[in-house]
């Protein structure tokens, strides 16, 4: 798959709902082909920030740029050729096969009401194969397991052939093998990727940089080895953990030592 990865530039984004800030003045830049992980506790603002990037939410202030173009000013079809999204919600209350769902990813590349041609079908089948989901092609999407649905939705984003991807917990529901396969695939594609992850060990293993959010604000951004420290985990997650380099790869390995750690008294809010 040939893609043109973009510079993704989040500039001072704030999102408020009913006067309550869910994200506050977050700035983040992902270089072409870079994989950046969004990490933080539940409620930190990861999904809200991603929804703002793919235009499901309008920022109260700030903006999101793709190669300098404001995503809110791009026509929908043009944006869909450049940016794809994999969401947590896998709604399945419709009578479509897994193949049909993946085929939706071809819509931005076709005229209205145009059917799939041979090239489209080749892309769709290739995307299913990349996610080990060819055997699911004719299965009703709403009868798939959570993990199977997740693989099909990632295949749909892959079929879109966009150079930038945002993924909200893409490893959710997946078994260990498919977690690793999925993140390895994203890296292999060479796209610019912004990925929300709960598993810090996966973030450390696959992301070039991580951005830690807490209470809607940026705590730290940088290479996993520099950011994911025992001190940060105690302050942000309130857990004691040991962070050591893996003896074979040198990748930071996070091992929780105890339960809640309430002794920090640290807040990252101004």
From TrEMBL:
<feature type="domain" description="ABC transporter">
    <location>
        <begin position="8"/>
        <end position="240"/>
    </location>
</feature>
<dbReference type="InterPro" id="IPR003593">
    <property type="entry name" value="AAA+_ATPase"/>
</dbReference>
<dbReference type="InterPro" id="IPR027417">
    <property type="entry name" value="P-loop_NTPase"/>
</dbReference>
<dbReference type="GO" id="GO:0016887">
    <property type="term" value="F:ATP hydrolysis activity"/>
</dbReference>
<protein>
    <submittedName>
        <fullName>ABC transporter ATP-binding protein</fullName>
    </submittedName>
</protein>
<keyword id="KW-0067">ATP-binding</keyword>
<dbReference type="InterPro" id="IPR017871">
    <property type="entry name" value="ABC_transporter-like_CS"/>
</dbReference>
<dbReference type="GO" id="GO:0005524">
    <property type="term" value="F:ATP binding"/>
</dbReference>
<keyword id="KW-0813">Transport</keyword>
<dbReference type="Pfam" id="PF00005">
    <property type="entry name" value="ABC_tran"/>
</dbReference>
<dbReference type="InterPro" id="IPR003439">
    <property type="entry name" value="ABC_transporter-like_ATP-bd"/>
</dbReference>
<keyword id="KW-0547">Nucleotide-binding</keyword>
């Amino acid at each position: 798959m040939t893609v043109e990865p973009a510079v993704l530039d989040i500039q001072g984004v704030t999102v408020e709902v009913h006067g309550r800030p869910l994200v506050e003045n977050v700035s983040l830049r992902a270089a072409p082909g870079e994989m950046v992980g969004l990490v933080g506790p539940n409620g930190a603002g990861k999904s809200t920030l991603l929804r703002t990037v793919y235009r499901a939410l309008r920022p109260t202030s700030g903006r999101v740029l793709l190669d300098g173009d404001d995503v809110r000013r791009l026509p929908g079809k043009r944006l869909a050729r450049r940016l794809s999204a994999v969401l947590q919600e896998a709604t399945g209350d419709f009578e479509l096969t897994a193949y049909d769902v993946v085929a939706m990813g071809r819509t931005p590349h076709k005229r209205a009401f145009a059917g799939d041609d041979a090239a489209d079908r080749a892309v769709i089948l290739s995307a299913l194969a990349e996610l080990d989901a060819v055997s699911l092609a004719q299965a009703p999407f709403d009868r798939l397991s959570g993990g199977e649905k997740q693989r099909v939705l990632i295949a749909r984003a892959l079929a879109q052939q966009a150079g930038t991807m945002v993924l909200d917990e893409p490893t959710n529901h997946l078994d260990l093998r498919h977690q690793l396969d999925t993140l390895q695939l994203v890296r292999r594609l060479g796209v610019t990727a912004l990925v929300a992850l709960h598993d810090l060990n996966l973030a450390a293993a696959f992301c070039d940089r991580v951005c830690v959010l807490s209470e809607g604000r940026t705590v730290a951004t940088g290479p996993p080895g520099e950011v994911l420290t025992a001190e940060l985990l105690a302050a942000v997650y309130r857990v004691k953990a040991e962070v050591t380099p893996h003896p074979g790869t040198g990748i930071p390995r996070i091992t929780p030592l105890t339960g809640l750690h309430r002794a920090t008294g640290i807040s990252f809010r101004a």
